[in-house]
Every structure is written in structure tokens, then in C-alpha cells.
Amino acid sequence: MPQWPQHSSRCTWASFQPFRSLVHADQSLSLVHQLAVVLIIASFILYPSLCQTALGMFACYIIDSGAGAFKENQKVWCQARAGKWASWPHGYWVRDMQQRCYHGIHRQVYMPIGVASTVAFCLGLPLIYFLLVWRCRHNLKDVFVQIKYGFLYVQYKPRFFWWAAVLQLQTLALVAVQTFGRTVVVLQQAMLLLIVLTIKAAITMTCSPLRFPLIMVLEFLSSAVLSLTVTLSLAFLQESSGFLPSAAAVSGAQVDVV
Q1: Contacts of 145 (CB under 8 A, 6+ apart)
Q2: Whole-model pTM above 0.85?
Q3: Within-domain flag for 251
């Protein structure tokens, strides 16, 4: 019976290229460093959701401006029979339309949470990403640095190693349009989205931070398609109506895709 040749080397997970960095990271980094890297990656991925939750604390919708021929009819009654004016000047919280903005529990509880969340998540996370790569700017080619923070800069040119922080700020602008755009008419929401997409594409194409030109072209085409979709959706906006459900849904979906 023929015998298969015996090889001294064993087939391990490290022999496969996609898993080499993971095996090396598991062997070279301590548990604390591994958990820190996982936390940074998770915050980077969940950044849009964190910003949307934080900014949602300030999203208010004005039901009625208080003007018109029937001002006395702009009063509604809650279940406790306590009068509330629909023309509250600051509007009502979009997460709870029975709660007046900047009044009561919204001012005492949710406003401090919103301020702290905005500073910690919306502004703090991009600053942390920038400081992490800036601290290691002279050792970006080091293996251990690439294992820990490589996902923040390897796809960019060497002089734009800090671009991940700028990318998160661009995402913050899109999330802000989605969050606060629900409180304005569709035309204004579409215009804000077009402005943000145009500025984002202009900055990215001018700086050209990505290492691979094909990815740069694909990103520009993505922004162009989104801008064209928003522009064409305005054709369905009726002059007598300030609301267009389909356009609002498209705008929200575009922000999520980006």
C-alpha cells in the first residue's frame, strides 16, 4: 500500500493569509490591549448610531406656530385633563410627541444626557481616533501598531493617516441632517442633504486621501448617485404641499447607506 509523504510542517490557521494577523495579534497583545482594540473598532462601526442617538435628544418638531385665524383651537388636552398648547414655541420632542422640548423632564434629564453624549460620542470619538494615530505617526509601519490601529490608516496615503477622524466628522454631518431634517419641510431637508454631499465629495476629491484611485472613483460616484437621486426626487414635490413621504424616506435611506 503506497504511503503518503510525511511533512514536518503542520497546517495551522496562521498558514492562511487572512488569519495571520489575527493569530499574531492574539499571541503578541495582552488581553487588555485586545479588548481595547475591539472597543475602538466597535465604536468606529457604531459611530453613526451613537451620533443619531445623541443628537436625537435635541430633535424637536413644532406642531403649530400659533399663527392663523383659529388660535383658540390650538389647545389639546392630555389624559390627565391638564391643558397643553400645541403651539409650544420650542416644539415637541420627536421621540415623545407628548413631551414639550426644553421643559420638564426633557430639560432636567434628557438635555444633560444629550449634551454629555454629544461631547463624548460625536466629538470625543473622532478626537480619540486622531490622537491614537497621531501618537504613533512615526511608527505607522510597525507591525504592532498596524495590528492595533491599522484599520484607521492603512487605506489612506501616508500623509493622510489621520483621515479616519475627518471621515467620522463627515458622517456626523450626514447624521445631523437626517436627525434634524425630520423637523423641517422636505425641500429644506433635501437642500441640506445636497449641500453636505457636495461638500463631502469636493473635500474628498480635492485631498484625494485614499491609497487606491479606484476606491476614490467609486466613492465619488456613490456621492454623485445619491445627489442625483435627491435632486430627481424634488420633481415629485408638489407646490401646494410641503411634505413628500417618498422623498423623506429616500433621504433617510441615503444617509444610512453612506
Answers
A1: 136, 139
A2: no
A3: yes
